[in-house]
Amino acid sequence: MGRLPHATLPEPSTAAGRAGLAALLAAPERAVVVLDFDGTLAPIVPDPEQARAHPGAVPALARLAPKLGSVVVLTGRPAATAVAYGGFAGVPGLEHLVVLGHYGAERWDAATGRTDGPGDDPAVAAARAELPALLADAPQGTWVEDKGGRAVAVHTRRAADPRAAFEALREPLRELADRHGLKLEPGSMVLELRPPGVDKGVALTSYVRHVGASAVLYGGDDLGDLAAFDAVDRLRADGTGGVLVASAATDVPDLSARADLVLPGPAAVVELLAALADALE
User: Were 268 and a residue from 101, 102, 171, 263 both cysteine, which residue would form a disulfide, CB within 3.0 to 4.6 Å?
Assistant: First the structure.
């Protein structure tokens, strides 16, 4: 005998979340699931270049996606990087997956395999050129990640005292960002410089309104996901159903405090996606 529908779906802790989940289940063809990559679909690792989607993520998404209006991966990484690290290309069931990279500045469509975006940002390049001098006396283990010309990030996770290194670099990097008209986005042991006016909230709102979704589930794990949480709150106020999911947000209390569902990491996110697929069969 098959598993009963909805049997394994966790119940949101808020009335708004329960209403959002009900709206998604009632009209899945008009629902959108939008997910962050690192920390949500992929476990956090010391070296971001070694990050890969949880082994169950692609199978769960491939089961769920055909039952929904659309599934989107929304990440600060370049879109092509997320596609490669996620293993999203050429997967049956994910023919209409969309990956919004660089916080929505880039878009990859599985249907075409093409990535569209505005190209490198000159202000990011100018700030990147100043980083070696600025980081000359930074704690050992601090390192720089180039994000395809649209952003640059300074990581402190490998330092002997990651939090102390993070706090020591926050103000110098803020000053650098200000000089070049960039935004400094703090995350979990990472400080990212990128163009203003580009964030996950803007990207999520634009996409949801473009497709005319009646419900949206958003899952994320870091400070950069707060803008998407804000966007879902605004969409809910306008009548769109919304569910906010925090993945392993123990070091981002603002995120977990606002979530309708708090899950202990990517494995639990995969279980949620599979439970949604079960409920919609």
Answer: 263
Q: Which residue out of 36, 38, 121, 278 is catalytically annotated? A: 36
b/e sequence 3-28, b meaning 16+ C-beta within 10 Å: eeeeeebeebeeebbebbbebbbeeb
Length of the chain in residues, anyone? Answer: 281
Nearest to 101 by CA among 84, 120, 82, 123: 82
Residue 92 Rama label (left phi>0; alpha psi -120 to 50; beta): beta
Per the annotation, the verdict on 36 as an active-site residue is yes
Does the predicted TM-score (pTM) go above 0.90?
A: no
pLDDT of the residue at 250 = 57
Condensed to tens digits (0 to 9), the pLDDT of residues 95-131 reads: 999 999 989 989 999 999 999 887 788 999 999 999 9
User: Which helix (H) or strand (E) is 59 found in, with range?
Assistant: helix 57-64
Contact 231, 199 (CB under 8 A): no
Q: Is 228 exposed, middle or buried (0-12, 13-18, 19+ CB in 10 A)?
A: buried
Dihedral, CA of residue 118, residue 40, residue 212 and residue 83, to nearest 10: 40
For the chain, first and last CA: distance in Å?
Answer: 14
* DSSP reduced 3-state for 127: helix
Q: How far is residue 104 from each of residues 21, 67, 99, 201, measured CA to CA in Å?
A: 25, 24, 8, 9
- Burial class of residue 174 in the structure, from the number of CB atoms within 10 Å of its CB (0-12 exposed, 13-18 middle, 19+ buried): middle
Q: What are phi and psi of 152, to 5 degrees?
A: -140, 140
**How many degrees, rounded to 5, is the angle at CA 246 between CA 242 and CA 252?**
130
**Helix (H/G/I), strand (E/B), else coil: 218:** strand
Q: What is the pLDDT of residues 162-217, one digit of tens each?
A: 999 999 999 999 999 999 999 998 988 899 998 887 899 999 999 999 999 999 99
